Amino acid sequence: MVLIGAAVVGVLIGPARIDPGPVLAEVFGRLPVLDFDSGLDARQTAIIWELRMPRVVLGALVGSMLSVAGAAYQGVFRNPLVDPYLLGVAAGAGLGATVAIVSVGSGSAVVPLAAFAGGCTAVVAAYALGTASGGRRTGLHLILAGVAVASFFTAIQTFVQQRNTDVIREVYSWLLGRLVTAGWGEVLSILPYAVVSAVVLLAHRRLLDVLSVGEEEARALGVRPERIRTAVVIAATMGTAAAVSVSGLIGFVGIVVPHAVRLLVGVSYRAILPLSLLVGAAFLVIADVIARTAMSGSEIPIGVVTAFIGGPFFLVVLRTSRAGFR
Amino acid sequence: MSRLTARGVVVRYNGRTAVRGVDLDVAAGEWVTIIGPNGAGKSSLLRALAGVIPHRGSIQIGDSELSSLRRRQVAQMVAVVPQHPERPDGMRVADYALLGRSPHLSYLAVETDADRDIVIGVLERLDATDLADRRLGTLSGGEWQRVVLARALVQEPEVLLLDEPTTSLDVGHAQQVFDLVEDLRVERGISVLAAIHDLTMAGQYSDRLVCMDGGLVVADGPPRSVLTEEILMRFSGARVTVVDGPGGEVIVAPRRRP
Q: Does A19 touch chain B (CB under 8 A)?
């Protein structure tokens, strides 16, 4: 319900003033069972269907991906501080995007692809490094390898950026996260990854509950923690990298939303994963509405909004659920 | 007929050889208890028998070699009550016990009503029905121990491995747990292999005792033949008197140094 409400608000609000009534009529008129004419002209229809709707849908997709991936990472590493950028996706995507912006410009369609490739490369590197150092049995090596890979990629990215100070603004705008759409292109480009990732993660909800008793006991219960971890990390990385590739780095969503959900429904991933998906979508759509409207005439980067809401909110969650995670 | 057979089992764990060639048999429906000083290799042996840490040598469950079985197949036959079970405090008792169905489900399957019925049955059997909706973090030590046992029984195992299941319990609660295991062993023909520190209880509940020291089996036989003052002095450095209780049961009483 919240998600639907947020989506409606997201469609209603925008820089071109169109009365809410006709917009609603236009949107719901498209539903198969209803049939009425909104009385909007072609330009207004285009604004709704080619500008506002894609943006709302993209926000929902990115928000749900980051949240469900965050929840899955927290489950598989049994660590409440983990976020979807843990294994270096963010740093890798940042490097990929920076290199693309420097070499072909920020408007290019190559930027998301480069970000996606960079993010996946970083995680593969972290995984290879983590398992090579004997980390198959504990997730700890993997996390440490992620930290090392992230610093390494960030260092290269900073270097590239300093050599190309003319594009620093564009790189920063990307790094702060933004939801910019031109039609349905972005939505369609990440939709397949988002769907596959969400399906795989949701399918692992029972196994994440089994992992909550620790690796050795999980093994005694007949599961193989390494295999679950690999499958979940691949799926979550794919979803995160897809989200990051179109939206840049939107912080805090992947950690705040799962914790809020956990506070509401308890510790079972059977409830946490699907609810994170929905709440994350609603959260980001609302954050985007705030980003678009809080300052008249200009947009605040959405990453700033999520951090601004997320930071204090996170403290509240931590205070109320000190023992709640496990 | 032997249900659990170990031959020449060696376990290296954390860079040290904890078990150095152990032979062991547990028959169907038999209760065998491993005793021995700290660091004798009891826990490592139990974990290897459960297949959760690697071993060399041969371990057979029924007719099958452990290393040729898949993880799930092992867990369908062998359940473990660990010494310090991980406790996800926020989880509900019924959900925790339901994890015991895991070995009987394929990778991405979820539990059915039949699985939930098994949980309900086990909780009833353990007089723990009223705990079903409690969160694990709110349980007392005795309740928690029963719930861990419930999870193991929900696995419907043929072999139950208990690694010092009563260390954190007072004598009364420890006896309750052992009485329960004893009843289930008789009812369901489960084989029990336990590591127990309390020698009197080990002697009273077990069909056979195995004494380990330095990763080896140093004595194996009926309780009376293993619980002797000489063996306990030699391997545990313990000064004890072994006496008969009023009902003929064995009692191992520690003595102060003279």
A: no
